[in-house]
Design brief:
Length: 333
């Protein structure tokens, strides 16, 4: 039984995979129930390249043994490459982000079978944070515990009504109307859902002329938090709750930076499969992957190290992916 790990350096390199004895037709099988002899999984890992072989092998071995066919792992250097791999029939299973899931479904009729679970959730909000609560908070900021780290952080506008933060949006978005012309707003790259796309859409929904604000470009969620903490920006956006990433180096963030709004929920990525795969194979593959994190302590560790996840779930909530596609369309050229 062959278990092959390859690297996909650029999108065009997908065509070079040419797995031994696996033509385009052989790789995908058909929906009549005849299984292919092998399938390929394409993903973007969270780890450095030198560890890829070691990290991928437990997952592909688990799937190979469970399905009794060869499962190959292919490393893509970006999420779009996973979509191109599926479209070119060089991968039949992709583990990718929400935008790429949407594109795979729209362009190649892929089937969404699993959603990523991080810290028990399949989606997350973007936080709107400020160092000027007098301007953006209609009530006194209150402390709530961010369970992932155990830290107490400040929230206002009813974003966290309980002592333990839940991070559920949308909440407090009306306060974004206080972002006026010339306000310094820390925003990440235009491809960032939590750091740019959902914040821009949410501000516009609240009547903010986003062309009139002073955008403070930052790289990374931690730097968005630090920009607000250091006074370089009055408002900033990041994933919930990115403040925890900088409290060791800047403990004053817990007091200086207040979350005053949550955008609507942003979907995690997940797993999609080619529409050409037999239905019974898809069903067994989905069940195996859904149970992978619980199959062993090693599997749970591999999953977190490989793609930064704690689990997969078959509760796909496809409407969230569709909504994400609508948001993406507003930023397409």
């Amino acid at each position: 039984m062959r278990r092959t790990i390859k690297t996909l350096p650029i999108v065009l390199a997908v065509g070079a995979l040419a797995l031994a004895g696996c033509s385009s037709g052989d790789a995908t099988g058909s929906t009549d129930g005849e299984w292919p002899e092998e399938i390929t999984v394409s993903l973007v890992p969270s780890i450095e390249g030198e560890d890829l072989a070691e990290a991928l092998d437990p997952l592909t071995t688990y799937l190979s043994d469970g399905l009794d066919i060869d499962v190959h792992g292919v490393v893509a250097t970006d999420y779009n490459a996973t979509v191109e791999a599926l479209g070119a029939d060089q991968a039949q299973v992709i583990i990718t982000d929400a935008g790429s899931l949407f594109n795979a479904m729209e362009r190649h009729d892929a089937e969404l079978v699993l959603r990523d679970v991080r810290f028990g959730a399949t989606s997350y909000a973007s936080i709107a944070m400020t160092n000027d609560p007098d301007k953006y908070c209609s009530d006194e900021p209150v402390a709530a515990t961010y369970e992932a780290t155990g830290e107490e952080l400040l929230y206002c506008n009813g974003t966290e009504p309980e002592d333990v933060a839940a991070g559920q949006g949308p909440a407090g978005v009306e306060a974004l109307a206080n972002v006026t012309a010339g306000t310094r707003v820390a925003l990440q790259a235009a491809t960032s859902p939590a750091g740019y796309q959902y914040p821009i859409v949410t501000m516009q929904d609240q009547g903010v002329d986003t062309e009139s604000i002073e955008q403070i470009p930052v790289s990374g969620n931690n730097n968005a938090v630090l920009a607000v903490n250091n006074g370089d920006a009055e408002v900033g956006f990041a994933y919930w709750d990115a403040r925890s990433t900088v409290t060791e180096e800047a403990p004053e963030v817990a007091e200086n930076v207040v979350v005053f709004a949550y955008t609507e929920m942003i979907p995690n990525g997940g797993v999609a499969v080619s529409s050409e795969l037999p239905d019974d194979l898809v069903s067994e593959l989905t069940e195996l992957m859904d149970g992978y994190a619980d199959s062993s302590e090693e599997a749970a560790s591999v999953m977190y190290d490989l793609v930064g996840l704690s689990d997969w779930t078959s509760e796909t909530e496809e409407d969230q992916i569709t909504r994400y596609g609508e948001v993406l369309a507003q930023f397409s050229e």
